[in-house]
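Amidohydrolase family protein: structure, please.
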Amino acid sequence: MSEADPAITDAQVENWSYGPIFDADAHIDPPHDMWKTYLPAHLRDRAPRILHEEDGDYIEFEGNRRPFMMINNQAGREGRNFKMKGRLEEQRKVWEPATRLADMDADGMDAALLFGGGPLGSFDNELYIASYEAYQNWVLDFCSVAPDRLFPVGYVPMRDIDETCQHVERLAKKGFRAINLPAFPQNPDAWKTSSGIQNMKDGQVSALTGDAKGALQYADPAFDKLWRTIVDSNVVITFHLGARVPRFGQKEFFLPDMPMSKMAMAEPIGIFIFNCIFDRFPDLRIGSMESGVGWFAWYTEYITRTWEKQRFWTESALKEPPSHYMDRNVFGSFIQDRTGILNRNLPGGRNIMWSSDYPHSETTFPRSRQIILRDFEGVPEEDVRDIINNNCRKLLGLA
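Here you go.
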């Protein structure tokens, strides 16, 4: 499907009155041959290989061969036509700047915050860590074609505080405005995690999740060095899901897992609030991305009322009620979430951001403006403009 396809042009909305759209959560997966160019020279021969077989394409890496999965590349397909396995040639070439920008134009997107691939699911620490930097360099090059429209998110390892600080400082100097951390810190062998998923390599799961049962935890005051580095570097933290990863490819679990993957992000948010991280670093901002926001107002009321009764025996040192930090420090993105929109004026519901999830399977492309008009029916124009544009700019310090 190209930008000229009737399915795209027919979805366009005339007489749009809500101004620019900043897509708070879009995705960019690099081409599979990227690794051979961006990995350090001595590691390039260990990059994944693509095998073209009669029954489909396969990715061969570190002695394992797996089918080429397409769940992250469904833009332009109706649900009945989704393909979980296929060939590289069947992908929408979202890593080509011309395709990407044409799709944004066709869908009415003015700017996008880009989450993406990396690291490789390697069992070797050197290759695993090197693949983070390879992706960082590639995505920065990709976004350089339209730096006023394409904003990359820097994925960093979180196995060692000093190492992560170095990544943050380097990426901030390169122009990154957002740093993505796993929902929980990683283990010293960063690819190891207790949150394994059958159809994903542990290293890929660890990049999102870390290890909820690991020795290193964000509640540790030693992390203050990282929070200070992030604030001083004028970047924000994003958590792109990860507290619970859906069991992709397992039909009996996928649908019930999906909502739990969203609401599970309450745990890392609570760790930041109740361990007084925002009291010590009031300028620290975090984004809970793709988690949906319909539960934000409920969550805020619940933790505030619970804190009011339980704060004495737990010896809570919070200076303000939890709702204060939800409204000042915590942002969240959603795709289709009218409940969250209707709760936008409640505590915890104010820093919400619309997103398309392009080109993943939940994407609103190519009907994003139609869906915005549907989901924001009856909402004052000023509020619409905040949610589809201004709040993301506020998160990134672009307002």
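Notes: The mean pLDDT is 92.
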